[in-house]
Amino acid sequence: MKIFCLGGAGRIAREAVLDLATDPRVESITIADANTTAANEVIALMPAGRATFQHVDLLASPDACIHAMRGHDVVMDGTTISLNGLSTRCIAEAGCHGINLNGFGDEDQHDQTFRANNRAHVAGFGMTPGLTNLLAVHAADQLDHVESVRISHGAFRPIAFSRSIAETTTYEYDPDLPGRVVYENGDFTQVPPFARPREIELPPPYGKTVQYIIPHSETRTLAKFLAPKGVKLIEVRGTWPAPNMRLISALHEFGILSNPRVRLPMPDTNQSIDVGVLDAIAEHLLHSTAGTTTALYGYALHVEVIGIKNGQREEHVLTHTHPTSDGSVPDWAGLRAYTRCVGLPLAIGVRLLALGQFRGRGVLSPEQAFTPSDVFDALRTRQIHIHHTTRIVHQTQLNRPTLRHGEVGD
């Protein structure tokens, strides 16, 4: 397996890189990044000779990037949302399999190129989208008919520990974003930020959180995948640490999430500069303690699927747990309790593509590409555990006795 890690020096992508480095079947790992210092930091964490560095500037030289990718089995794309259209085009033209973290839809335009090259590109394979898609499908596979899918997650990380994370934060709450939709009775309905609040009980230590609709790709891809089972409702919600949510709510209330432009006088000159208010706030957060730290680190998923099995209405709830961020498990201390949760599924997806353990060609959603049990089994060996509760419910209540509860794979 020859792996090209585009943006591989990022905080999340490096977790995938470090995991891939432990696999003797991986012949070569190329850390392809514009940040030489960060890339060398990643390489220094691995045994000598395990990875090499390739300086690339995707925006400035996409043709050079395509040339560097050629000959690799899989390109692992760790770039930001705004670059995924360009990065996916490069992967397609290089003739490689590809996989990224975001899956917001810019990848779809390159579907025919991947098909023509007999290659696959999995769009959006981290925690969410990614693992959440497979949790929903795992539950749906046990039902004859699916009524509703409600996906929720808590991403407990600083609001701006990197530029890509800051971009994700502002992107998802853009008031004019067309992709913030819910699926109801065959239609996609656009909703504003902070729509449809719902209290979700996440696994300890996270507890109860109020979550809102977010623009993740599961809504779009699961509507298609689960159509044969008659799904009527799909909602995807999310939350960040409470201070982050309060800040985003205030920025929304004051109209700042639309990034209005202002002119600011430059000190001691007769000139002024035009800036976006949100851009300035994001830049401040990237260099502040409040923007780059948080009290609790980690990730929590909660996927609820309701449907019919043998004439009975059932509710399936799937969650996941991982080691605490308190330092008692060194590789999971602090921010790594978050970044490992996102990066490890990406590494697993890279392996499955390289080994041919996937379905289809072209641009694929996670549920199209991978078998849930393959991913769950691999996650278990990395201390990420999937838990599944099933119970009979009626139309007016969801609190009937539990039928089954346990870790998937027990």
Describe this structure in words.
With 410 residues, the protein is an alpha/beta fold. The protein folds into two domains: 2-122, Rossmann fold; 131-251 and 292-338 and 372-407, Dihydrodipicolinate Reductase, domain 2 (2-Layer Sandwich), CATH 3.30.360. The chain has 14 helices and 19 strands. The protein has helices spanning 13-20, 36-44, 62-69, 84-94, 111-116, 131-140, 163-172, 218-225, 242-253, 277-286, 289-292, 336-354, 366-369, 372-380; strands spanning 2-6, 28-33, 51-55, 74-77, 97-100, 120-122, 145-156, 181-184, 187-190, 198-202, 207-213, 233-239, 261-265, 272-276, 298-309, 312-321, 362-364, 385-392, 402-407. Strands 7, 8, 9, 10, 11, 12, 15, 16, 18 and 19 form a ten-stranded mixed sheet that branches. A seven-stranded parallel sheet has the order 3-2-1-4-5-6-17, sandwiched between helices.
What general outline do the C-alpha atoms trace?
A: globular
| CATH architectural grouping of the largest domain | 2-Layer Sandwich
CATH class of the largest domain: Alpha Beta
Largest sheet, in brief, is: 10 strands, mixed
CATH topology of the largest domain: Dihydrodipicolinate Reductase, domain 2
The residue-averaged pLDDT reads: 94
> What's the total helix number?
14
